[in-house]
């Protein structure tokens, strides 16, 4: 049997189970209405829960951004003190934060989607409850007519199906919140303990190795860039030429280029590493770390 | 025929359009049986898009039951399997 028919059977069986206990169709109408009102309350609470979960993730992302900025400062200080080992440690922790932020972003996207879907569900449910309330009074008034029984049956099975669907939507939203809470708890612990190592969370050893290698080269790149920034501006010869301050604009531009090019051997690799940051939209900024190379 | 996209709403799809949906439905069942998550979500998206394109959305004030039901395209293979399995426990 096709998926569409099977699912229909499942949804309707769930719906019937809820309604089968009532004998008198008129009672079924009132019970359905009561249940819809309850469900409307639940969905409204669901929207609030998803929004709270989303805000928690945003707050954590901000905290992680602060930690990352602090680690980058520490790396710079460490290098200034010729402690490359410490700088390396700080940058590798910063790389761990970047991984953590990527995970948060995925969950944030999912929660935003659930939130907008539940808001739409609430609006549809509200319209439906209102419409059902009017219909049920009409149906009850005409109950003596034989065909009214069938119509009550149809209305009740239609509304039960909608309620089951809403229930499933709520369930999915709650699942996403539970997943988010598990991760958020872990991030909170990490933030509290200050240890941000071993964050990849990957269960695939090969992927873990690949991640490590790419993180490693990113760290090397950042180290090279920091060294470049700390190094003496340029060999004296180049500076004197630039400092000659002739009024000819062409000469200045050419000299400035020479001075700029010398202390930055890592300029080209920085360009190749940049695209990920380049395509980020403003809303993504919270979930990605800027590269050292992109700073003035 | 009334078709429900779960978590979204119902569409009235003309009967002569159902053949196309059923063909996709069969492929969807194959992908689920084969445990092929990529193919599953690809076909599910296509199926949902076809329903929206060929059908007319019913307002929230229309209260009718559906002849066919599909998961929303955000539903993962794992989630849909759990949903289908939950039917085994319910006597239809």
How is the topology of this model organized?
The complex is a heterodimer of chains A (296) and B (92).
Chain A: H1 3-19, H2 25-80, H3 84-141, H4 146-193, H5 205-230, H6 236-243, H7 249-261, H8 267-273, H9 275-278
Chain B: E1 2-5, E2 9-12, H1 18-33, H2 37-54, E3 56-57, E4 68-70, H3 77-86
Structural class of the secondary elements of chain A? mainly alpha
Multimerization state: heterodimer
Order of helices and strands of chain B: EEHHEEH
Radius of gyration of chain B from CA coordinates: 13 Å
What coarse outline of chain A follows from CA principal-axis ratios?
rod-shaped
* Cα-based radius of gyration of chain A, to the nearest Å: 31 Å
Q: Helical content of chain A, roughly?
A: over 70%
Alpha-beta content class of chain B: alpha+beta
User: What count of helical segments of chain B does DSSP give?
Assistant: 3
- Count of DSSP strands of chain B: 4
Taking pLDDT < 50 over at least 5 consecutive residues as the criterion, the unreliable ranges of chain A are: 195-206, 240-282
Q: What proportion of the residues of chain B is helical, as a percent range?
A: 40-55%
Largest sheet of chain B at a glance? 4 strands, mixed
Could you characterize the architecture of this molecule?
The complex is a heterodimer of chains A (296) and B (92). Helices cover 80% and strands 0% of the residues of chain A. Chain A has helices at residues 3-19, 25-80, 84-141, 146-193, 205-230, 236-243, 249-261, 267-273, 275-278. Chain B contains three helices and four strands. Helices cover 48% and strands 14% of the residues of chain B. The mean pLDDT of chain B is 89. The two termini of chain B are 21 Å apart. In chain B, strands 3-2-1-4 form a four-stranded mixed β-sheet, with helices on one face. Classes of the chains: A mainly alpha (296), B alpha+beta (92). At the A-B interface, helix 1, helix 3 and helix 4 of A face helix 1, strand 4 and helix 3 of B.
